[in-house]
Amino acid sequence: MEYINVGRTGLKVSRICLGCLSFGLAERRWGLSEDQSRPIVKQAIEGGINFFDTANTYGNGASEEVLGRAVRDYARRDEVVIATKVYYPMRADPNGRGLSRKAIMSEVDASLRRINTDYIDLYQIHRWDDATPIEETLEALHDIIKSGKARYIGASSMAAWQFCKALQLAGEHFWTRFVTMQPHYSLLYREEEREMLPLCESEGVGVLPWGPLARGRLARPWQEEPDTLRGRTDDIGAEIYARTQEVDKIVVDRLTSLSETRGLPHAQLALAWLLSKPVVTAPVIGVTKPQHLDDAFAAVGVKLSEDEVKLLEAPYVPHPVSGL
Q1: What is the mean pLDDT of residues 3-26?
Q2: CA distances from 32 to 57, 170, 190, 285 (A)
Q3: Which member of 107, 249, 289, 316 has the greatest number of CB atoms within 10 A?
Q4: What was the pLDDT predicted at 31?
């Protein structure tokens, strides 16, 4: 495994981040029970992954609980980097969601209890909250850092102007700045290359792409109809990619051609393409089977030539903005 600094910080993380969305996700048929999740965490740690990403909303807190117990059993707390998020509804009442000071202060404590830890390494806002002034959110996050409940803060999918505004305000008020951005980014969705990624590169912000395999679409040859349980039941994925199937097929066909030439699986090549981008710190890889981690480990060592990168990128055409 290779390790890299997160943006301009001194924090070092593995080039692969294990995404824990599926852990304890009983309400979705492709989710994993705790007994199914624990071997994956163990395999990740044994393979050198020290970076884990979850959220309070995943399984309504179950993912944090499963990850916390597995880390306790398979690793030393200070040797791993745990990231979690806040924003989506956790209760039915009006203050049970969003990025108000009340919501953030309540949810960080709830996440700490579920993970069974004294601190969160990277506390991220899951989305932009139009109902809360960003100044209120930033000051609350700064106070969490100063209290020792979190080490760093990060953000996820939003418009580049919103992220720029947040970085600017944090600087003006001497509040803690975001050190990471978790955007929707893969060979099938490259809209973040227009504004968000150049902004992150300029500001020294680490990039943690979600959906790096386009929810499985970059892990195999093109299929008109999904042949996996998640593919058939994943409403979010269907919504994101339904309108671009014709152009996406061309990209996947190029990936298939390179896979046949190099003798490497689609997933390894798609991840290697992401890892070739200097602004990318670590893709967040969702794993439900041991072979998914095997491909992720192998991808770190795969190097693409300039011609291979051009081959994969050439068919891409602009996509509707999604994932915000």
Answers
A1: 94
A2: 15, 38, 29, 15
A3: 107
A4: 83
Whether 316 sits among the annotated catalytic residues: the reply is: no
Cα–Cα distance measured from residue 183 to residue 194, given in angstroms and rounded to the nearest whole number: 12
CATH superfamily of 3-313: NADP-dependent oxidoreductase domain (3.20.20.100)
Amino acid at 172: E
Q: pTM of the entire structure?
A: 0.92
Please state, in angstroms and rounded to a whole number, the distance separating the CA atoms of residues 13 and 11: 7
> Rounded CA gap, 80 and 73, in Å?
12
Cβ-in-10-Å burial (0-12, 13-18, 19+) of 29 comes to exposed
36: enclosing H helix or E strand:
helix 34-46
Mean pLDDT score of the chain: 93
Q: Which of 58, 87, 189, 241 is catalytic?
A: 58
